[in-house]
């Protein structure tokens, strides 16, 4: 703390440190026994009038941060906040004694304090702790931001999440809702016989998704490693080993841009079930989304960005080709020439990278650029071109694979395959990815020889799905920016 840069309020707060020490009080406190959370107090006192509350005689000991303070002569009020909410406190010389009341009067908004007392109602009917003891716990050296206008910029709130959580009820709600959503997912899958596992974050090869990796270096081995872009290949190795139903919730890292729905470090869940297929894993995904939404929000009908999203009704299934025909009038199953497909792309104003030189790549561009933003209600889009799905089992038409993506509000929420378990086919797909990489595709997979060897021992027919936890939390908490659901998002320099 640079004293030269402090304002008058901060200097006054700093000077109080020595005053506390002179009184024999540690300005940064000690353990404090809490009897009730504020939420518990409100529940216990609900629907009690003044007479019933006085007869109830609930004695409490709470700790929290001072959010407001009205200091008067011999009686004062303050409002303190713990992790569950806030409550008013009445403090008087008569109840505290002059020495303890003077200690309270030294306090500042933002200080962390303990209060013991009995529950009562004020004349206006507000539930209040009538304090019998005030304890200083931690000094706050900076004034808190002004409640309504002091911390509203999303950039500043994301950088100073600790202040955001102190000042913004909505941010606190989202922060506590996120782990509830994750627990609900875990309960659902555990009850279905799935096992949660942890796999390594460092990888010697790029695989499992189309994305640019972060690169790091292991000094002892003198070798570069990648931060994982997906958990897929390791989880499939576990299927080969006979675990049959596995899932992992974990951090992934993709060296890409940042926007409202992308952060380079994010959380996903990948789920794999042996002896099922795309339809089976789709049914599992639909039930999981519906169950979790209902458990954490109270309803399978949610409001997101002023739109009503219906997780209650059966999700729509439609092939990518049928969706493009429906929107653009183009039937890619009838197109066999890249030149014809390219001509259609140019007419629609689509840009094609040089490695996107097949009908399948053009078809995928049509879908991503012209169709997906219309998918507001939950929709499974299936039957993807083989070129954009290197780890997926071929369909009856070898140009397409057994894959779906689940879209909600125009954005991908989940991605699923009937998993490719043919090692010979998988090797050819990896070789095609290497060719794409030579042509400039930075997101192409590398050849994972160990994974190929694992497949040679036999992986059962399997369905697998990956879902973005952050995007799911965004939906269930009605947040339009991914930074609002990640406690410490990646930020640009000021």
Architecture overview:
The chain is an alpha+beta fold. It has helices spanning 8-22, 38-45, 50-56, 93-96, 98-105, 154-159, 161-167, 169-191, 232-240, 278-297, 320-328, 338-347, 359-370, 423-438, 449-456, 469-477, and strands at 59-70, 75-82, 85-92, 112-121, 127-138, 195-196, 202-203, 215-218, 223-227, 245-253, 265-274, 301-304, 307-310, 316-319, 379-385, 400-408, 411-418, 462-468. It folds into two domains: 3-144, Nucleic acid-binding proteins (OB fold (Dihydrolipoamide Acetyltransferase, E2P), Beta Barrel); 166-315 and 377-484, Bira Bifunctional Protein, Domain 2 (BirA Bifunctional Protein, domain 2), CATH 3.30.930. The chain is 35% helix and 25% strand. Strands 6-10-11-18-17-16-15-14 form an eight-stranded mixed β-sheet, with helices on both faces. Strands 1-2-3-5-4 form a five-stranded mixed barrel. A three-stranded antiparallel β-sheet has the order 7-9-8, with no helix packed on it. The longest helix has 23 residues, at 169-191. It is elongated and about 90 Å long. The two termini are 20 Å apart. The model has no long low-confidence stretch (mean pLDDT 94).
Please give a handful of descriptors for the protein shown:
single chain, 25% strand, alpha+beta, 35% helix, OB fold (Dihydrolipoamide Acetyltransferase, E2P), eight-stranded mixed β-sheet, 16 helices, 494 residues
Present the secondary structure layout.
Layout lengths: L7 H15 L15 H8 L4 H7 L2 E12 L4 E8 L2 E8 H4 L1 H8 L6 E10 L5 E12 L15 H6 L1 H7 L1 H23 L3 E2 L5 E2 L11 E4 L4 E5 L4 H9 L4 E9 L11 E10 L3 H20 L3 E4 L2 E4 L5 E4 H9 L9 H10 L11 H12 L8 E7 L14 E9 L2 E8 L4 H16 L10 H8 L5 E7 H9 L17
Parallel strand pairs: 3-5, 6-10, 14-15
Antiparallel strand pairs: 1-2, 1-4, 2-3, 4-5, 7-9, 8-9, 10-11, 11-18, 12-13, 15-16, 16-17, 17-18
Helix pairs in contact: 7-8, 8-10, 8-16, 11-13, 12-13, 14-15
